[in-house]
Every structure is written in C-alpha cells, then in structure tokens.
Amino acid sequence: MPLTSGTHLGPYEVLAPLGAGGMGEVYRARDTRLDRNVAIKILPAEFAANEQLRIRFEREARTISQLNHPHICTLHDVGKFEGNDYLVMELLEGESLADRLERGALPLSEVLKIGVQIADALDRAHRAGIVHRDLKPGNVMLTKTGAKLLDFGLAKSSALGFSAEAATVMRPLTQEGSILGTFQYMSPEQLEGLEADSRSDIFALGAVLYEMTTGQRAFDGSTKTSLIAAIVSKDPKPLAQLQPLTPPALEHVISKCLAKEADDRWQSAHDVAEEMRWIAEAGSQAGVATTISVRKRTRERIAWGAATVLAAIAVAMTFLYGSATQRAARPFVTDLTPPAGIRYNAVGDEAGALVVSPDGTMAVFSGTDGAQNQLYLRSLITGETKPINGSDGAMFPFWAPDSRKIAFFSITALKRVDVSGGSPSVVVPSAAASAGSARGGVWTPDDWIIWTPNTQAPLEKVRASGGPVSNITKLVAAKHTSHRWPSVMPDGKHLLYLAANHQNPTGGDNGIYMTSVDGEEPKLVMQSTSSGVYSDGYLLFVRDQTLMAQKMTTSGVISGDPIPIAENVLDDVGIWRGAFSVSSDHLLTFHTGRATVTSELRWVDRTGKELAKIGSPASYWDLEISPNGQKVAVEIGDPLRELWIVDLARNTRTRLPLESAWVGTSVFSPDSSMIYTSILRQGHGALIVHGVSGGTEKKLLDGNLADGGVSGISPDGKSLLFVRADGLALIPIANPTQEVKLGGHTNDSFGEFSPDGKFLTYMSDQNGRMEAFITSVADPNQKWQVSNNGGFYPRWRHDGKELFYLDPSNKLYAVSVETNGSDLTLGTPQPLFSIVPRPQCRPYAVSADGQKFLVNTLVEQSSPTVTVVSNWMSRLRH
Fold first, then answer.
1. DSSP for residue 593
2. Closest C-alpha to 376, from 419, 335, 433, 333
3. Is the pLDDT confidence value at 726 over 60?
4. How many alpha carbons lie under 13 Å from residue 119 in its C-beta half-sphere?
C-alpha cells in the first residue's frame, strides 16, 4: 500500500518513497527514537494473509536480524501497519548492481572486489543456516563502504505456495520480462522443483559474476521455456570470447560456480571468496588476460594445481606466445571503462588521451570528476585503476621506454613520476617552461625528453633528469606555426612530429616530418593534419576520424595505400592530434566518440543560494555580462562554438551571424552596444567587432589568434586586453597592429581592467602556482598577489572595491580593494561559496553590485570510449 510523507509507523516517520524492492515498496524514513535515517519496506497484503508465510517470514526476519556482517544489509526491526508487515532496514546510499550493469561490464578489479564481498556475505548466511534463494544484481547494493546483500529469506521456492517471480520483481516489467528477470539466476535444481541449498546460491553467484565480467547474462532466452532449457542443458559462452581481458583463473572460478550438478560446484561460498582473493593478490601471475601479450618467458611457468586450470593456461599460452601469424588470427577487442565517477578527459588543451605503456601492461590517462582533472594509472593485467598523487591538473602524459616512469605537463612545469609511487619531480621548472599550453612529448631510450612547450614552439629537448633546454627544430616564418606531438623511431635517434600552420591548415606544408634528436634537417614524410606514430613497418595516423596504417620504412619512405584500422576515432582537430596509442608489441588503444559537457546558467547570491536559471541546459563556455547588466555574451557548442547574446529581461538568446568555426572569449564595449571577439574561420584567425543588436562584423586584426583571445577592454573603450601564449598584451582599437606587450610571464591569462582603468587583474603561475594578481597598467612591474592558496579567473566588482576569484577547489572568494593613486591595499580573502563549474572556461560573471553571480554550472559530462585491440596488425588481414 502506498504511504505518504509524514505517515508514522510507530516510531518511524516516512519521509519519501525510494521505489520498489523485493516484495514491496521501500521508503526513506526517520527513526525518531534513535535519530537516524532508515529504510522501511512494506509487504503486500496478500503475503500477510498467508498464515504459513507470515509465520515463516517473522521467524526468518528474527534470524537474519542476528546476522552481523559488513556486506549484509542490517535488519533493525519488524512490525505491522494496518495489517501489513514491514521491515526496518539499514538505509543504503548508492546504486544497485543491476543499475550499474546497465552501463556495461565492470573493470576486473571491481569484479573481484565486489565478488569477494558478495561471497563473504553468502558464507556468513550459509553458516547460519540461511539460503538466499534470490541472489541477483537487483539484490546487491553498491555503496561507498562496499557491496551490500539484500532480501535474505524473502524469495522462497514454489513449495511454499506462492509465485517466486512475483516476489522478486524489482521494477515495472511486462509479465514475461518479470519471469526472465527472475529465472536468469536460478540453479537447475531450483527449476526442477528440488530443494535449494547453499550450492544453489553459488550457482547464482556464478551467474552474477559472469554478468559483471562480460556485461551479458550467462543464460538468456526469448521465452521462459527456452531460458530454462539454456540453464539446465547449455553452457554460457566462454568469458574470454566476450571479454578478452578476463584472466583464465577467473573463468575457472565462474565456470565451476555454474556447473549443472550441485556436487560439481564449489561447495562453499568461502572457497569462492578465497579463490577470487588469490586472483586479486597474485596479480599478473594469476590474472594474465588472454588478449594482452606477456613479454617475459618466465611468466609461462605459472603453477596451477588442477588439470582444468592447466588446460586453460595451455589455451592462453597458445595465444600469448604463439607466432605472429597465430596471434594475428586471434584479434580481440574490448572497451575500457573509467572508474566510477571519473570520465576520460581526452579532448582539448587540458587533457590527455589514454596512453598504453611500451610493454603493454599498463595505461595512463587524464580523468576528471567534473571539477578537477588528474592522471590515473590502470593495470591492463588486473584492471586496477589508481590516481597518481600530485598530478592534479596534469595533461598529455607519456611513458619512459622502460614502462616504469611517466612524464607529463602541469600548468607550471614539465614533470616526471615513478609508477611505483612517490611524488612527481620537476624536469623543467616554470621559469623555462610554458607547460600550460604544451603540445606533447616523448621519452627516448637515451633518456632525452623531446617536447613542445607551447602552441607556438618548435621541438625542444632536455635530459630526463633535468638540465638545460635546447631547440631541435626551427620554425620557418610563413611555413609552420608549431611543431608538436613527437614520437620516437625504433633506433631511438630519429623522431616523427607534426608540423602545423594555423594560418593555412589545408596547405601542403602541414604534415608529419622526420628529424633526429641531434637536429637533422627535417624531411616531409606525408601531408597530414593529425599526429603519427611508427609501429613495425607502418605509420599510424588519423584521417577523417579513421585510424589508418600505411607502409613506411625506418628512413621515412611511404609506400602503398593507407589501410583503415578503426573508424570513429577521436581526432582532436583543435590541437591536431589523433587520440590513439600503441605498445611495442602491437597493443592498440584509441578513443571513440567525444566527451560532451552540458551546463546551465544559474544566478546565485553571495551564499551560493540559487536565485534563477537562464535558458535551458546546453554546452556553454565563457560568460560576459554587459556593462549595463542587460545582456550576457556566451559561446555555445562543441566542438564548434557560436557566439550568442542572452537578453536577461526576456530570458531569450540570439546567435550573432559570425559564420565561423570557432569563437573565443568576448567583451562588450563600455556602452554595451558592440562586442569584441576572436574567431577562427577556415583556419584563419581574426579579431572582430560586431553590433550586439545586429549589423555586420568589422575585422580589426588578421593573424594567428588560436593561442589566445580577448580578455578585457579598458573603461574608455580604447584598448583591448589580449591573452597570448607568451603573456598579456594591449591592442589599441584605433590601430590594432600596434600591439603592446605587457611583459610578465608566459602563463599570464584571463585578465580584465579595473573600473578606473588603472589596474589589471589576471591569473599567473609566476610564483610556481596559479594565483590571482593585480598589476598597474602604467607600471607592469608593480604587482600585488591577491590569492594565497591558488587563484583562478579573478573578476572586479563594478565599483572596483572588491575582487573575486576561485581557488583550486572551486570555492569563490571575495577580497576588498582600496586604491590610493597608484597604490592599493588588499583585504584578507573571504570565502563565499563553492561552485561546480563547467571545466576549461571562465565559468562565472559578477553583477554590478557584487551581490549576484552568474555561474556556468556543470550539469552532465559524458566520457569518450576507450577501445583496446590486442594486436592491431591483425586488422591488416581482416
């Protein structure tokens, strides 16, 4: 019977419905005696009317209440309400395993961890004489403290005289769907009407483990009859056929759980738990995935105790150590999912596609939780994923040749870190590296790091241990604006890199070139607008979102036609890079699809309380409020960005007809009638001005603007503040070619003028960490540091008496400002509230009086997929 909020069941006050669960409706409630939240399940009246069932239910409820186990949902109390039995249980926050499986298979490490927890819970129940009889993903809850097993003793056999399928429905389904959803996990003896015992639960555990590992059910059928026939007489598909990264040892555990005869299964859940613990602890020895080549012959000597396991290993070794022809006949493909709550951060300036280690046993990738990105290390043997300490804000990681170290770029420096642990160390400090806009690197066998420090740089080299930096290549004016994405050839001496010209993206000079660590004269290998990597006689590159392989000699001579290897590969056109990597023995990883971000514009007050929403959710970028407070300029779209003007009074928006492929940050003129922005159109950059309410655009400046954009405008409307790769600059609107550099630091960015025009606020890593600063326009050498624990995107209140900025945790701070001629006094930063911003943009704007903030708030962010191919060369033959 449905309950309403505020209903009291004795000392329990119903707060809200949680949905269907097991045999009834589940509600969030408050235990008024112990002042704690609980879950209450109301049982249907038809169950209470069955005297035998009611007595059995009460007896088993008392028994289960004595079970004290961290992975069994605790039963607190039982009672009656208007003739209906109810249970009072531990309130669990999280998602069911069934809901998690809707997103696909789990990583191996999660399968083992959750599987051990479920098996331990079953073992505890079995030792108390309780058989679950209804183990399935819907009865497992995933919480922050681990898996929790639900509904012990509620799903009985048909001998008790009621429908098992009616007792186990977890969500609205058709009648046929309900039957299939229940019978999927029943053992053969249950389906034959025999008494279920603990080994029936072990069969169900095997079916759940199978589904967790592969993302598919072990048994399926279009009808109840065909499903029962499959469970009783057929074996499920081998796990390695569906999930190539499955260790043979785990396949053995699951297949034994699913034995048709109860005597042939594991005889206790304890044994199953111990086997999975052994697989997790033994790592590469017990958990060798059948799709990834193991490089050392000593790994062939793994000892197994049973003949069935030896047979599994023999099959695996045939694939792992067979000839290249044998391995080519076994092309396996699988997808890698990121950890729960983390998304691949594979696109854009502050990113890093997943990169496989040279030996093919590990991968490193940049991931984001929506607020901060950092690096993660993933074992391709065990599936374990862990964050790399000290890598917050890291981008574009790459491996050392020994697969034991990783180099990456932070906003301030080129760094390195050991995969075994420890903190990152600096290779090139911020004084010599504008790493915040770096474009890739490679670590050579001779311990050189070759890298591109910013978007307008040639290749540079430095010893991996640190030291002086020197150029390898030289940029030729009017030919290339950047040399980027270096990769090393097998001799360790020669390099491939992409040479790009942002001003002429379709020109013949754009392409993959070859040079040497010693700086040999570069030669064109092939025309291209995406990075390339050499692998065993082939050049791999992306063209029109298709990964291609074309024959190439080690001297850089191309021959034959390119062969498609994979489609829909992410090609990050904004930075001229294909999101793929390859190990020394042909393990290929690549991203498909794209990362999509949805945000919405919200007005909040100084406490963070939401006041109103502007428009509907979309892919919003940088915000700018007009000086008169009536309009908002915002870029919308991904990857193409268009400039829109939002009318705050009418809550409508209008697109400016700029007909460009990309729009940068924008600022309004002081009278709010015009808007200044930088655009990229057919590869050509321009600084333009356009009427807010219509008219046509006027071009102020041609040139390569891809490395920066408009950041602010002087109060008199005479100068624009522009962000370049090498710092801030002033552009006179009347004579835009007379640009004035403000000096400062290469990573100075996101500045704006004070209301009186005498000062600039901006963010900079000039002291080794990104902080908010103020400088004098008249004397740029005069500086004041505003933040003291990290500061981003500083903005003025319109009277100049207060400044705002975000700290690294996205908390907004306010700082009072008092000016006295050319001097000023800053107050102590005061925290206001935290936001969840859309990443990689200036995510907030301030009302004139500083009492409201328009925040570009992250709503949803999807992740591109990572695909792993065990031997990419097999695709040359398929």
1. S
2. 419
3. yes
4. 28
Phi, psi at residue 568, to the nearest 5°? 60, 35
The structure tokens 């950059």 sit at: 685
Asked whether 549 and 255 are in contact (CB, 8 A), the reply is no
Sequence-ordered list of residues with C-beta below 8 angstroms from that of 823, at least 6 positions apart, any chain: none
Q: Is residue 746 helix, strand or coil?
A: coil
d(CA 712, CA 845): 13
d(CA 355, CA 334): 16
| Inter-residue contact 127 to 133 (CB < 8 Å) | no
Judge whether residue 557 has pLDDT over 90: yes
In this structure, are residues 664 and 710 in contact, taking their beta carbons and an 8 Å threshold? yes
Instruction: Determine contact, residues 668/633, Cβ cutoff 8 Å.
Output: yes
**Residue that has been written with the tokens 């000086």 in this structure:** 627
* DSSP helix/strand/coil, 801: coil
Q: Is residue 506 over pLDDT 80?
A: no
β-bridge partners, 613: 602
Any residues with CB less than 8 A from the CB of 789 and at least 6 apart, and which?
807, 808
Which stretch of 397-401, 518-522, 590-594, 869-873 has the lowest confidence by average pLDDT? 590-594
Beta-sheet strands, E only, within 626-769: 631-636, 642-647, 652-655, 662-668, 674-681, 684-691, 698-702, 709-713, 719-724, 727-732, 740-741, 749-753, 759-764
418-425: long-range contacts, CB 8 A cutoff, minimum separation 24: 419/362, 419/377, 421/389, 422/389, 423/389, 423/390, 424/388, 424/389, 424/390, 424/391
Q: What is the tens place of the pLDDT at every residue in 609-662?
A: 999 999 889 999 999 999 999 999 999 987 678 899 999 998 889 999 886 667
Residues 6+ apart with CB under 8 A from 605: 611, 851, 852, 853
Query: Residue 61: helix, strand or coil by DSSP?
Result: helix
Kindly state the DSSP code that residue 475 receives in the 8-state scheme: P
Starting from the edge strand earliest in sequence, which strands make up the sheet with 759-764, in order? 749-753, 759-764, 771-776, 783-785
pLDDT for position 10: 82
**Could you give the count of Cα atoms lying within 13 Å of 588 in the half-sphere of its Cβ?**
28
- Taking the C-alpha atoms of residue 548 and residue 866, their distance in angstroms, rounded to an integer, is 17
Q: Count of residues for the chain?
A: 878
Which of 31, 85, 120, 134 does the annotation list as catalytic? 134
Is the Cβ–Cβ distance between 280 and 113 less than 8 Å? yes
User: What one-character DSSP code corresponds to residue 506?
Assistant: T
**How far is C-alpha 320 from the chain's CA centre?**
30
**Residues with Cβ within 8 Å of residue 817, at least 6 apart in sequence:** 774, 800, 801, 802, 803, 824, 825, 826, 827
Q: What is the pTM of this model?
A: 0.54
Q: Which helix (H) or strand (E) holds 793?
A: strand 792-796
SS3 letters for 360-394? CCEEEEEEECCCCEEEEEEECCCCCEEECCCCCCC
Query: If you ran DSSP here, which 8-state letter would residue 387 be given?
Result: E
Q: How far is residue 95's CA from residue 106's CA, in Å, rounded to a whole number?
A: 14
- Structure tokens, 824: 């000023």
Main-chain phi, psi angles of 176, to 5 degrees: -65, -40
Percentages helix, strand, coil for the chain (3-state, rounded to 5) are 20, 40, 45
DSSP-derived secondary structure letter, 333: E
Collapsing DSSP to helix, strand or coil, 436 comes out as helix
Name residues whose C-beta falls within 8 Å of residue 258's C-beta, 6 or more positions apart in sequence.
Answer: 203, 206, 207, 210, 218, 235, 236, 265
Q: 């191309």: which residue's tokens?
A: 558
For residue 409, give both structure tokens.
Answer: 């770029």
Please indicate whether residue 134 is annotated as part of the active site.
yes
Do residues 633 and 644 touch, judged by C-beta distance below 8 A? yes
How is 439-464 classified by DSSP, letter by letter? --EEE-TTSEEEE--STT---EEEET
- Cα–Cα distance, 208 to 110 (Å, whole number): 13
Neighbours of 197 (CB within 10 A): 14
How far is it, in rounded angstroms, from Cα 788 to Cα 828? 10
Q: Are 682 and 654 in contact (CB under 8 A)?
A: no
- Token couple for 474: 């030289």
Q: Is 458:467 a contact under the CB 8 Å cutoff?
A: no
